[in-house]
Design brief:
The protein is an alpha+beta fold and 282 residues long. Helix content is 17%, strand content 28%. The chain has six helices and 13 strands. The strands form two sheets. Strands 2, 4, 5, 8, 9, 10 and 12 form a seven-stranded antiparallel beta sheet that branches. Strands 1-13-3-11-7-6 form a six-stranded antiparallel beta sheet. The longest helix is centred in the middle third of the chain and has 13 residues, at 164-176.
């Protein structure tokens, strides 16, 4: 049973919160520059991600990529790595600490230690109108880890092979010519593209609800460094009822790559790795 509240319980709860990481001193992206360059950019490649599967794609620094659900409501799980060093990868926890539980226009996807630099910047999000709904749900979360076969086995004894973790593992293995056992440790916590999620207000539990994405919607990124991406079309479809099963209606996702013309990004430089000296007090 819960312990009895102390006499000053209300006073303790009433203490005002403090933002852990104020972002006013973060280096800010030049969205105006990026958008001018994007308007003149030409599509150079596209990758279709089949339902309940994953695919890899590459994006040079200074290029753009767009993710859309052209055929129906579908969420996707996105991994990003430095193209030339898989040990530098998207760090969802630090991104969440800096920008919040859900990402949208102007937010950045930060990389792991010791680099800790922007890997990609969101420059347009057609679902930015959604905001936070009455249930506390919002779109494009960095709180869910990705559906995986290990949790499924833990909860139900299943052996399901087309969850996002497995889809991303197969995609990376195929792209890099690795064994599955080599690829799997590189798969990491994701940006849940188009997924609508939050925490219940009574118990603080992670929830999902039907994604608001429709054909014509997209989220678009600027690649701050040379990127290798992997995207899984989640077996939960729009995640309105369940995931990690073959019951949900699922649709493909589309990744398109765009190259700006020469000179369109004059003055822009790919961000350097973090300036901490790594001495750790020694």
């Amino acid at each position: 049973m819960p312990h009895k509240p102390p006499p000053d319980a209300d006073a303790r709860r009433a203490i005002a919160p403090v933002i852990c990481y104020p972002t006013d001193r973060l280096p800010q992206p030049d969205l105006a520059l990026y958008r001018r360059a994007r308007r003149r950019a030409q599509r150079t490649a596209e990758v279709e991600v089949p339902p309940r599967d994953g695919r890899c794609f590459t994006v040079p620094a200074g290029h753009f990529f767009r993710i859309s659900a052209p055929d129906g409501p579908q969420v996707g799980d996105l991994n990003l790595w430095h193209l030339h060093d898989l040990s530098e990868r998207f760090y969802s926890g630090k991104t969440r600490a800096l920008h919040g539980t859900h990402l949208s226009t102007g937010d950045r996807m930060w990389s792991s230690f010791p680099a800790l630099r922007p890997t990609a910047t969101i420059i347009e999000d057609t679902l930015d109108w959604y905001g936070i709904d009455e249930h506390g749900g919002a779109v494009h979360d960095v709180i869910g880890t990705r559906c995986d076969p290990y949790t499924g086995n833990l909860l139900s004894g299943s052996q399901y092979h087309h969850c996002c973790h497995s889809n991303l593992t197969r995609a990376l293995a195929d792209h890099a010519g690795m064994a599955l056992s080599q690829a799997e440790p590189h798969v990491h916590d994701v940006l849940n593209v188009f997924m609508c999620t939050g925490f219940t207000r009574d118990s603080g539990r992670y929830f999902m609800k039907a994604s608001p994405v429709r054909p014509g919607d997209f989220i678009e990124f600027f690649a701050e460094i040379d990127l290798l991406g992997a995207l899984s079309a989640c077996p939960g479809g729009d995640c309105s009822a369940e995931h990690s099963s073959d019951a949900a209606a699922c649709f493909p996702l589309l990744v398109e790559i765009f190259a700006p013309p020469p000179g369109a990004l004059e003055g822009w430089q790919s961000p350097p790795v973090n300036g901490y000296d790594r001495s750790h007090g020694r």
